[in-house]
Amino acid sequence: MALIKHLSNRMFIPIVSLILIALAFVFDDWSSIWRGYLNILQSPSVLVSDYVYIGGLGATLFNVATVMIFNIVMLRSLKFKMSGPVFAGILTIAGFSFFGKNIYNSLPIYMGIWLFAKTQKLQFRSFMIVVLFSTGISPIVSFFIFGTGWPLYVSIPAGIAAGMATGFILPAFSAHTIRFHKGYNLYNVGFAMGIISMLWAVILTSFDVPLNLGGPTSEVAHVQLTAIALILSTFFLVMAFFVDRNPFKRYPELLRSSGRLVSDFIREYGQAASLLNVAIMGYISVSLILVLNLQMNGPVMSGVLTVMGFGAFGKHPRNAIPVMFGAWLAVALTNYTLDSVGMVIALLFVTAVSPIAGRYGPFVGIIAGMMHILITPYALRFQGGFDLYNNGFAAGFAAALLIPIVETIKRIKPEESE
Amino acid sequence: MNKQEVKILTKIIRELSFFLMLHGHKDFILETKNTPKTTQFLITLHDAKESFLKHMQEKLNREREMEVETYGWELLGDIDEHSDFAILGSLIDSMDYTQHATKTVVTLVRKNRYLDES
Predict the structure, then answer these.
(1) Is the dihedral of CA A22, A24, A28, A32 positive or negative?
(2) Cβ partners under 8 Å of residue B3, min gap 6
């Protein structure tokens, strides 16, 4: 009973990592997992690097589970309680470990943030939101080590130094960027990292270091990845009923929230309603992929897991569906297509701007979704590919452009005045 | 007290003022009292309804979240909904109120545990 209480307080995240590691050995044997895992560790990992393509499904799941376990142990050692941001952070880390994050390219970023905390005489744990989302820029480490073509005795120290420097500036910078979009971009750290990534891209380009924007994606694990996404969604649904026989009790309240940063659904509406929402967001994401007949691969799986994670930190069907519909509508009305993986994942990551729909209604949400997906491909070229949260970068611009206009119109309407 | 703490305290004052005015309390007195261990915010209100005070208490009497100290606090003072008080709740340790004949005194306490304890 004590163990169940312990796991419930951690939103069953340790079980998820065990499910993933078990599935790794279901799909592959140890020798191919290890071979694939080494390929993953040596990949430059810039956008878009599908680890399922690079290392195989078993090795990718092993990578996801090990990165998750490392972060769970870190949170445990810091005596961190589970909250909406922490849950979202862990599932986002899990998601992006399908395409770009691994255990060693994350560490220099953490070290940089730790160093920043020390120099500011602040507790490292107080930067936990930034820490958990910081590894979105971990490809900078891998790129320096394996993507520049420099000898390892130069590239390894350069990669570690670049990662630490990035981690060092990230906390102060991400706290500042939140004001740019007024908290209406849920991937705020992604926005901050996009700007830092842009800086790295121009520095490297000025030294004639060619930037490599990733490679092909896997097309062989569609069924398995879809099954994993459904298994995890169903797991969270069952756990919601396990925690409370009626998880719907506080769900209408959760649906009424705008979801604007910093919305901690676990704290505000409890574990059961949050777990239920996580499961529903998972089902919505998988349904979108299946209905539009899109290919499930590492990056798309990352999108599904991130949407589920943010089911405890700002996203719910009422604010997410309008922006997803807006993104799809923009593709339908323009020359954009869903042929590239970047556009497919944007259909999921567009939910970064969900709080706009939550606050200003579905119509403005649809416009936000349209703006977001139109900006996304340009944002990737702009930031150079080191920021895995490219959609966070694009969402920052979409929100910052839209919010002042909507607020001005709202102020003009007399019935809305205070 | 370091500069970051001063920034947070002044943002809290702005958020409180904004919240009170949004709820129709245009006349109020807001005092701060500082000791090395705590900062108290004392708000004197006239004609404060019990439901309003309960709502405020519900939003503010939550567990302090240290991670908001470094992340979401920049949004303080920029609430856009009457009920949007979540960030402030993460920065305040406790909220209480006492009602007198014609006035209500609301007391908010923020313990100074921002600095590294080491």
Answers:
(1) negative
(2) none
Q: How confident is the model at residue A382, as a pLDDT?
A: 85
By three-state DSSP, how is residue A68 classified? helix
CB B91 within 8 A of CB B114: no
Question: Chain B residues contacting A, CB < 8 Å?
Answer: 2, 4, 22, 62-63, 65-75, 78, 80-81, 84, 86-87, 90, 114-117
Longest alpha-carbon distance in chain A:
69
3-state secondary structure of A122: strand
CATH code, B3-111: 3.30.565
- Interchain contact, A178 vs B68, CB within 8 Å: no
Which residues does chain A have within 8 Å of residue B86's beta carbon, measured at their own beta carbons? 262-264, 268
- Identify whether the C-beta of residue A106 lies closer than 8 Å to the C-beta of residue A67: yes
CB contact under 8 A, B117 and A359: no
Mean pLDDT to the nearest integer, B64-76: 75
Q: Report pLDDT for A42.
A: 85
CA distance A237 to A367: 31
Question: Do A329 and A200 touch, CB atoms closer than 8 A?
Answer: no
CA-closest candidate to residue A306, choices A86, A91, A111, A107:
A91
Could you tell me if A290 and A302 are in contact, meaning their C-beta atoms sit under 8 angstroms apart? no
A366-384 in b/e form (b: 16+ CB < 10 A) is bbbbbbbbbbbbebbebbb
Give the three-class secondary structure for A131.
helix
B30 pLDDT more than 90: yes
Which parts of chain A register pLDDT below 70? 1, 47, 212-214, 411-418
In this structure, how many other beta carbons lie within 10 angstroms of the beta carbon of residue A363?
11
Q: What's the CA gap between A29 and A315, in Å, rounded?
A: 37
Prediction ipTM score: 0.74
Residue A154: its pLDDT value, please? 94
Contact A262 B4 (CB under 8 A): no
Asked, as a colleague might, if the bond just before A262 is cis with ω within 30 of 0, I would say yes
DSSP secondary structure of chain B: --HHHHHHHHHHHHHHHHHHHHTT--SEEEEEEE-SSEEEEEEEEES--HHHHHHHHHHHSS---GGGGTTGGGGTT---STT--HHHHTT-SEEEEEE-SSEEEEEEEEE---B---
DSSP string, A254-307: HHHS---SS--HHHHHHHHHHHHHHHHHHHHHHHHHHHTTPPP-HHHHHHHHHH
Q: Closest Cα partner for B7 from B70, B97, B89, B96? A: B70
B84: left (phi over 0), alpha (psi -120 to 50) or beta: beta
Higher pLDDT, A53 or B118: A53
d(CA A295, CA A301): 10
Angstrom CA distances, A91 to A56, A68, A307, stand at 20, 8, 9
What is d(CA B86, CA A83) in angstroms, rounded to the nearest whole number? 14
Q: Residue A143 has what DSSP assignment?
A: I
Residue that is written with structure tokens 């990230």 in the block: A170
Instruction: Please say whether the beta carbons of A136 and A189 come within 8 A.
Output: yes
